[in-house]
């Protein structure tokens, strides 16, 4: 099927041809006609299947047909809500590309940056708004955004939205939206809580499912390395060099882990950078831009930060930590093998993650190939339940000890005990002597220089040495008469200020 067969308007078709897109992906082929028919859609598709275009193209077309006769400030017609800043930016870039031959205006708002530019964009008017939940509700509460004219609502990456704890924000947004609207709901997986949420948002939806929610793309080759915990970093560097990987996206379970992995890769001359939630938005955008441009070899990311990373022809994904949620594995390796391209996913598994691998294989319905040519094979055994309990106890103890030491050593304050001020012993410092110094304690005044004749140096003869008595009295054109008398009218003023000639 060709895009022309989907009844897409000429301005959008022109943009698609300029991008080299001729045939829609399966999700686009199924979803676009239903959205154009103004049906609610429940889309089940993993990342990399083209679902962003599946909802953005028909939204642009619907608004174009509705508002092409409208004159004046643009009216907000569509709201697209997404969990992360990176994904919001990616959707905004797609909308800009598809709508460049139309009058459609859009804005992208997210937290982590100042709101001035975003507020300015909303005041000038937009047709489509792409937003993350937190900043969106913030600007709504400040009165900068009004949703009363929204006719198209999109909730993207719904499963990740719930994983990140946005359920309360989503419920608030649903209450603020008009009841009469068209809603589109997209998710890579469909657990029970997602089905429940979709039933609150959608009205008699058409379900569009391209692949089973638990499957991975057939174009992605998957390999598993088993190793010990203390050998993971060495194994990661070995994989990158041994496989001749030019660029790879590496996943870490934690933010601190992402920073540590990037630092250690740099130590072995592998250029790397990290992105996660603690990084500022400019830092994240800079790292992502450098990676997309090919200037950074390895980008280390957490699951949340990786949402929205859309890199064409990214071949390699490496799981430094095996995710404890099988669905996250599907999301991660979906970053490679996009749009039918070949992808490769490597996973590094330590003993405590062996059980996670079994859960993943159960979800995806296939065995992951184990790499036997491994210079750092797994020799340690997983901990027993009692050992895990003891290990967690020791971990918590060290954590408390670490933060206690940090609290005791404040910046620039030196070591301080945690006793209240009333219990601390008073310091017996000698009081400073604040008495004025006597003349005897003061240093002697330096001697005055004298001339060769033994006299003090002569003063400047040009000095004015006249005495105050010698000064001439100032002469004024008039003199003030002594006070006295009570004359009235203009004569009184004349007598008061008489000119000298009239004396």
TrEMBL record:
Alphabetical keyword list: ATP-binding, Cytoplasm, Helicase, Hydrolase, Nucleotide-binding
Name listed for the protein in its UniProt record: DEAD-box ATP-dependent RNA helicase RhpA
Span(s) of short sequence motif Q motif: 1-29
Name of the top EC class for this enzyme: hydrolase
Record-annotated DEAD-box RNA helicase Q domain positions: 1-29
Bias type Basic residues, positions: 473-484
GO molecular function, one term: RNA helicase activity
EC number: 3.6.4.13
Region called Disordered, residue ranges: 373-503
Nucleotide-binding as UniProt keyword: yes
Biased composition (Basic and acidic residues): 412-472, 493-503
Organism per entry: Portibacter lacus
GO terms of biological process kind: response to temperature stimulus; ribosome assembly
PROSITE patterns: DEAD_ATP_HELICASE, HELICASE_ATP_BIND_1, HELICASE_CTER, Q_MOTIF
Domain of life: Bacteria
One Pfam family named in its UniProt record: Helicase_C
InterPro entries for this protein: DEAD/DEAH_box_helicase_dom (IPR011545), DEAD/DEAH_RhlB (IPR044742), DEAD_box_RNA_helicase (IPR050079), Helicase_ATP-bd (IPR014001), Helicase_C-like (IPR001650), P-loop_NTPase (IPR027417), RNA-helicase_DEAD-box_CS (IPR000629), RNA_helicase_DEAD_Q_motif (IPR014014)
Catalytic activity field: ATP + H2O = ADP + phosphate + H(+)
Helicase ATP-binding domain residues: 32-208
Domain Helicase C-terminal: 219-384
SMART domains: DEXDc, HELICc
Single GO cellular component term: cytosol
């Amino acid at each position: 099927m060709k895009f022309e067969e989907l009844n897409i308007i000429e301005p959008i078709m022109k943009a698609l041809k300029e991008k080299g897109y001729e045939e829609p992906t399966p999700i686009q082929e199924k979803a676009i006609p239903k959205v154009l028919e103004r049906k609610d859609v429940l889309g089940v598709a993993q990342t990399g299947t083209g679902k962003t275009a599946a909802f953005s193209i028909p939204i642009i077309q619907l608004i174009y047909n509705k508002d092409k006769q409208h004159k004046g400030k643009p009216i907000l017609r569509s709201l697209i809500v997404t969990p992360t800043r990176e994904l919001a930016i990616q959707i905004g870039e797609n909308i800009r590309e598809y709508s460049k031959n139309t009058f459609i205006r859009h804005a992208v708002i997210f937290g982590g940056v100042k709101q001035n530019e975003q507020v300015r964009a909303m005041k000038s008017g937009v047709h489509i708004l792409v937003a993350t939940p937190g900043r969106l509700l913030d600007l709504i509460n400040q009165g900068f955004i009004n949703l009363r004219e929204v006719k198209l609502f999109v909730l993207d990456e719904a499963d990740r939205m719930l994983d990140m704890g946005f359920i309360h924000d989503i419920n608030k947004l649903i209450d603020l939206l008009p009841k009469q609207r068209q809603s589109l709901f997209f998710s890579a997986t469909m657990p029970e809580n997602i089905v429940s949420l979709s039933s609150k948002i959608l009205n008699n939806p058409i379900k569009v499912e391209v692949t089973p929610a638990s499957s991975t793309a057939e174009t992605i080759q998957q390999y598993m390395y088993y190793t010990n915990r203390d050998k993971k970093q060495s194994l990661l560097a070995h994989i990158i060099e041994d496989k001749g990987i030019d660029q790879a996206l590496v996943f870490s379970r934690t933010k601190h882990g992402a920073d540590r992995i990037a630092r250690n890769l740099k130590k072995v001359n592998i250029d790397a950078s990290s992105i996660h939630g603690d990084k500022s938005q400019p830092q994240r955008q800079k790292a992502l831009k450098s990676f997309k441009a090919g200037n950074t070899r390895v980008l280390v990311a957490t699951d949340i930060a990786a949402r929205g990373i859309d890199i064409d022809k990214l071949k390699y994904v490496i799981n430094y930590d095996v995710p404890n949620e099988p669905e996250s594995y599907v999301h991660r390796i979906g970053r490679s093998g996009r749009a039918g391209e070949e992808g490769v996913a490597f996973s590094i598994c330590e003993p405590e993650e062996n059980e996670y691998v079994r859960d993943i294989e159960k979800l995806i319905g296939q065995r992951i190939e184990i790499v036997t040519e491994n210079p750092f094979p797994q020799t340690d055994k997983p901990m027993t339940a009692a050992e895990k309990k003891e290990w967690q106890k020791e971990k918590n103890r060290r954590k408390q000890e670490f933060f206690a030491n940090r609290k005791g050593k404040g910046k620039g304050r030196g070591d301080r005990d945690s006793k209240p001020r009333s219990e601390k012993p008073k310091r017996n410092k000698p009081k400073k002597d604040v008495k004025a110094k006597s003349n005897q304690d003061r240093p002697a005044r330096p001697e005055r220089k004298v001339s060769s004749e033994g006299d003090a140096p002569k003063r400047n003869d040009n000095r004015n040495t006249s005495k105050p008595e010698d000064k001439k009295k100032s002469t004024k054109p008039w003199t003030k008469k002594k006070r006295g008398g009570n004359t009235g009218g203009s004569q009184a003023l004349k007598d008061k200020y008489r000119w000298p000639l009239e004396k």
